[in-house]
């Protein structure tokens, strides 16, 4: 397991030339996965279910790239000692 988290999500787009969702409140959050391979497998499965709807697209987001480990963390990114995950 790599520990590099990936998010799989998707929904109906406004048009095929953009990545704007028609209804952001209706975005399908498939899940967060511990590595690219498992995220890809989930993406492939859900994408195949919607293959007949050209306006529906699913994406894999690399969550680990959203946090720069070299920058100081904000208080919401730091876990107090008593709340750190085990």
Written description of the protein model:
- The two termini are 16 Å apart.
- The protein contains 1 helix and 3 strands.
- The model has no long low-confidence stretch (mean pLDDT 84).
- Strands 2-1-3 form a 3-stranded antiparallel sheet, with helices on one face.
- By secondary structure, the chain is α+β, with helices and mostly antiparallel strands.
- 16% of the residues lie in helices and 23% in strands.
User: Major sheet, described briefly?
Assistant: 3 strands, antiparallel
| N to C succession of SSEs | EEHE
Kindly estimate the percentage of residues that lie in beta strands according to DSSP.
15-25%
**CA-atom Rg in angstroms:** 16 Å
Low-confidence stretches: none
Tally of contiguous helical segments: 1
What share of the residues lie within helices?
10-25%
Short summary of the structure?
The chain is an alpha+beta fold and about 90 residues long. Helices cover about 15% and strands about 25% of the residues.
SSE arrangement:
Layout: E1 6-12, E2 28-33, H1 36-49, E3 56-62
Antiparallel strand pairs: 1-2, 1-3
Features of the shown structure:
3 strands; 86 residues; 1 helix; single chain; three-stranded antiparallel sheet; alpha+beta
């Amino acid at each position: 397991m790599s520990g590099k988290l990936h998010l799989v999500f998707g929904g109906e787009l406004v048009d095929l030339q953009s990545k704007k969702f028609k209804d952001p409140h209706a975005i399908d959050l498939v899940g967060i996965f511990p590595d690219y391979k498992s995220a890809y497998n989930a993406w492939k499965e859900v994408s195949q279910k919607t293959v007949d709807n050209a306006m529906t697209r699913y994406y894999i987001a690399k969550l680990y790239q959203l946090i720069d480990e070299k920058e100081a963390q904000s208080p919401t990114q730091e876990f107090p000692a008593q709340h750190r995950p085990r």
